[in-house]
Amino acid sequence: MARRTFFSFHYKADAWRASQVRNMGVIDGNPPASDNDWESITKGGETAIKTWIHSQMAGRTCTVVLIGANTAGRKWINYEIVKSWNDRMGVLGIYIHHLKNASHLQSTKGADPFAMISVGATSLSRIVMGYDPPFADSTLAYSHIKINLPLWIDRAIAIRAKY
To answer: Structure pTM?
Structure first.
C-alpha cells in the first residue's frame, strides 16, 4: 500500500540531506518549498505558516521527522509533530547526520525531538520510534534508510493506531 508522507526537517541546516531521503523513490512524499516559496510563506506570519503546514499534511498518513544536529526544539517542527499526532498520523524520526550535505560533510547527531513533547504524562519518545542508521559511511546510511523506510512508516502507522 502506498504511503503518502509528510517530511519535517530543519530547512536551512538539513535541506540537502532531506532531499536525499525525499528523492529515494520508495514512498510518496510532499513536494518541498523552494527558498523563495518559504520566504513568501514566512512573511505572512504564523497564520500563513500554519495554513501552509496544514495544506502540506492534508491526505498524508505519516510524518517522518528527519533529525539533524539542530532539529529538536524547533518551533515549527514541534508544531508539525504535535499536529501529526493529533491528526492520528504515524510519526517517526530518522537521524540523518551521517548523510553528507552539499559540501560533502557529515554532521553531529542531534537530540531526540520527541523527548520534549508529551502525550498526557508520557514522553512521545517512549512511543515514537527514532531510527539511527548503524553506519558512519554516508552511502551505507543512505542504503539502510532506503531499504527500511517503507517498513518504518508502516510501523509508525501501526503504533499510532494503538493510541
So the answer is: 0.93
